[in-house]
Amino acid sequence: MVGVFRRSLSFPNKNPNRPSQQKPHISHHIRSISLPCRSHPLISEIKDEINDLTSWASTSKSNPQTHTTISHGLTLLKDTHETLQHILQLPQTLETLRSHPLWVEKLLEDFLRFVDAFGMFQTSIMSLKEEHSSAQMAIRKRDESRVVAYVKAKKKISKEMEKLVSVLRCVHVTQHQQHSTLQVPSSVVDAQLRHVIADVMSVTVSVSVALFNGIGVSFASRRLSWTQMVRLSRNGGRENNNKEHEGIEELRNGVGMERLQNLKKKGDEEVRLVLKKMRDLEECVCGIETVTEKVFRALINSRVALLNILTLTQ
Fold first, then answer.
1. Which of 126, 150, 170, 306 could make a disulfide contact with 135, Cβ separation 3.0–4.6 Å?
2. Pick from 75, 77, 61: which is nearest to 199 by CA?
3. What is the pLDDT of residues 186-245, one digit of tens each?
4. Residue of 309, 307, 305, 298 lying closest to 77 (CA atoms)
5. Residue 4 phi, psi dihedral angles, 5° rounding
6. Confidence class of residue 68 from pLDDT cuts 50, 70 and 90?
7. How confident is residue 78, by pLDDT bands cut at 50, 70 and 90?
8. What is the C-alpha separation between 243 and 45, in angstroms, rounded?
9. Which candidate, 188, 172, 34, 157, places its Cα nearest to that of 111?
């Protein structure tokens, strides 16, 4: 026969007058739970970069563009794509994009448009720089025939920029945004990634269009129609729809055709001023070319990272 033992519970009496003794440290084991809602720090970083680009785009629409502002926007775009490349190398990114191969193919097509557009831009700028150097030699020799070729080159690059803008209009930003909202995400990380990629596509189009439009408008012909001349006379010689602020300020205020005419009749001091304007314009163009080359390389690397993901899924 087994005896029954009663278990007694002893509660310590708390004496308020007794000095409190230091309680022994009791370690509690807490089981860690890995939740799918935790996003990678790179996601937060690229969101901040996208917000900076969105703010830049809204500000550039209401203020005149300068060489400094357009270069700043392009630098922000380069940094964003470099962050995107790191994100595309994460295992969770590979897992997400693996389940959407058709979307990855569309992304590759649009990234190819970006790469082609910036590649053609580099070629156009290189040709313009050659004509610009020849024009400076012609101004020193007061050879107006070469100056005419330079003016034609500026009009040509303006039309080429219009074509590049139309190419970027074909980028299906809306489709990428719809994909990020209509498709049911498997996790919060999945949803964040798809929204981030769609936003990167959107800001890439915005900054690129701002660049190409800025160059195109700056080098466009200044010849006014009769209607525009009448409107200018009524407004005291000023446009009322901010047309005067379109383009990139340093390029728009460069050497006009009126300064390149009748070179043989101009004095030495006037010719020196024209050459100084030409050198300033050359520095501005070279500065834009340098930063766009970095964006061009970043776009290529982003497309290569996507191409590697598509290759792994096959």
1. 150
2. 77
3. 556 677 888 899 999 999 999 999 999 999 999 886 554 445 444 545 555 444 444 445
4. 298
5. -100, 125
6. very high
7. very high
8. 36
9. 172
Residue with tokens 């010719």: 271
Domain boundaries defined on the chain: 75-313
List residues bridging with 65 in a β-sheet: 248
Q: What is the pTM of this model?
A: 0.77
| Predicted confidence (pLDDT) per residue in 120-156, tens digit | 999 999 999 999 999 888 888 887 777 888 888 889 9
Contact between residue 115 and residue 305 where contact means Cβ atoms under 8 Å apart: no
Rg, Å, the chain Cα set: 31
Q: What does the block give as tokens for 94?
A: 């590979």
